[in-house]
Amino acid sequence: MEKSKKIALVAHDNRKKDLVEWVEFNYKTLLGHRLICTGTTGRLVEETIKRKLEKEEQITFEIVKLKSGPLGGDQQLGAMISEGLIDLLIFFWDPMQPQPHDVDVKALLRITVVYNIPTACNRSTADFLISSHLLQESYQPQLLDYSQYISRNVM
User: Fold this and answer.
1) What pTM, to 2 d.p., does this model score?
2) Is position 18 annotated as part of the catalytic site?
3) Is 3.40.50.1380 the CATH number for 6-151?
């Protein structure tokens, strides 16, 4: 991981307000990194940062916006993780509301573990991740070697 991280931001509908508040509080730190978001979350994050920057000097930023989670955005993120294009995931998911794409959510969280991607599923963990000195430094995560698993003879 380079000093500037590729940070994915995702939030279920009932948690979008929480993520927007978190982005408002942390936007200056987030501006130093590349942001990738799913669907509506991307639009809300972009609007939030633009609103915060109106009062400050001219700073340009870009947010990569993927499809909405239920329309494949979670799967797009999973693919990006497996290709090494995501360094960190902030995913405010709603544990109380069943999602039509629960299997995609589970697959996304599973792939973050497989590729050892720091993942925050709640605000406290997100606060710890964004305040870590490692966020501003180069970092080489330890990856498990799955070659034996892949080459096993199943039949």
Assistant:
1) 0.89
2) no
3) yes
